[in-house]
Amino acid sequence: MKTLKIAIQKSGRLNEKSVELLKNSGFSFDNYKSSLISPVSNFPLEILFLRDDDIPEYVRDGIADLGIAGENVIKESGVEVNHLVPLGFGKCTMKIAVPVITDIVSIADLHGKSIATSYPLILEDFLLKHSIKADIRTISGSVEISTNLGLSHAICDIVSTGGTLKSNGLMPFCNVMDSEAMLIGRPGIQEHPIVQEVMQRIRAVLRAKDNKYVVLNIEHKNLDSITSLLHGVRSPTVVPLAEKGWVAVHTVIPETDFWEKINQLKSSGAQGIVVLAIEKIII
Ligand code: PRT
Ligand code: ZN
Known about the structure:
This protein is of the alpha/beta class and 283 residues long. It has eight helices and 15 strands. It has helices at residues 15-24, 55-60, 71-77, 120-129, 163-167, 193-209, 223-229, 258-267; strands at 4-9, 37-39, 45-50, 66-70, 82-86, 92-99, 114-117, 135-138, 154-159, 170-179, 181-185, 211-219, 237-240, 246-254, 271-277. The strands form three sheets. A six-stranded mixed sheet has the order 2-3-1-4-11-5. Strands 8-7-9-6-10 form a five-stranded mixed sheet. The longest helix has 17 residues, at 193-209.
């Protein structure tokens, strides 16, 4: 079978998590800092290590069949690629930020102002949607110091914790877009059997991450009230215990409302609750 290529960031914020995700998905490859391409030894796939900005174009042009990049980078590239699987890491928000002391208090106040950014296309699109005419100043890095240097009235940049804004005397003003790492593919490639397999494996790892495997003991007479609380992969597994009238229940609980569910289970008589991490969930 023909080997496909997946492009991931060579170094930077998305590199480690992309490598971890692919390795957890069962793809074995070497991750030497010097290599630009690494074959997967147990699957017809090759890993290309690139700058994140190049990934959407490489995927569109067919140099890579798949890629992992931030949605912000994909949108800014203006390239048409298919968004296949949101990957849940590299989460951030692109925001417009203004100096702590400013006369910009509403979006309309951005009219006629200058805004510095490394993401001119995303900003232009946002301003157009709000019918604002502003002067977009494209700069390639250290956007957050541009207001202090008198280069612009506001900035538009990626914010994660907000620490960088704060240390530069800026405050978030409005959200432009949310972003996370995304598995992308050239249009149509998702029908390819290798891509289907890659997506199935990645989804299995992501699903597992979002859930916990839970084993608990309960008196048989309380079983109905416990099972009504559980919406696991299917109905829970119930195993009799050596002690008469007692059973063990095995189930999967989503991370999102984990503690709420555990407390409800305890209130319904669950005892000896054991929680285990899951490696993969295949449905
Ligand atoms: O070398 P290469 O071109 O591949 O990488 P890069 O330097 O262009 O990108 P990199 O590695 O910094 O980020 C890769 C991707 O991670 C981005 O495109 C986003 O999708 C995502 N991401 C998630 C972030 C952040 N969080 C983030 N906090 N990208 C950048 N930042 C920067 C931001 O630009 C700002 O300078 O962190 C600063 C703000 O952080 P806080 O925590 O202080 O708010
Ligand atoms: Zn980059």
